[in-house]
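Q: I have 142 residues here and want to know how they pack in 3D. Can you give me a structure?
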Amino acid sequence: MKKITYSSVVGAVIAEERELREVSQQVAANVAGMTQSTWARLELGRACTLENILKASKAFRFEPWQLFKVVDDRVKSLTLQGYEVVLDTPSEEEIKKDAESWITARNLITNTSLLGLGAVAGAAVMGVMPYIERLFNDKNKP
């Protein structure tokens, strides 16, 4: 069974949002008030502290709950496809030791369409805010 950390999914969604906005990691980091290397680690799921997530959300002008809604939908989709989403972040050595079992944020982004995320992948195509707005609009339809 393939495994991915929850923080890798957070990082992948943040990276997708940045790429959708067509800004570099350096620009995103500057707006968020962090270094480019911290931003890069955030996108990899390695620096997903609450503070960094709040800074990224503020930089992209959406609420943290909106980011987590997209992440949670992505996690549900991955789980339904048979992936195990784990909360504990393994060390680099653990990942290298069992590399075939782990999906990283980097390859999650490049394989999103291959994972068949269906409607959830819409967040990668349209961005966090339009995705959330669509969810609310769909729920308000009779």
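Q: Anything worth noting?
A: Residues 112-122 have pLDDT under 50 and may be disordered. The chain has nine helices and two strands.
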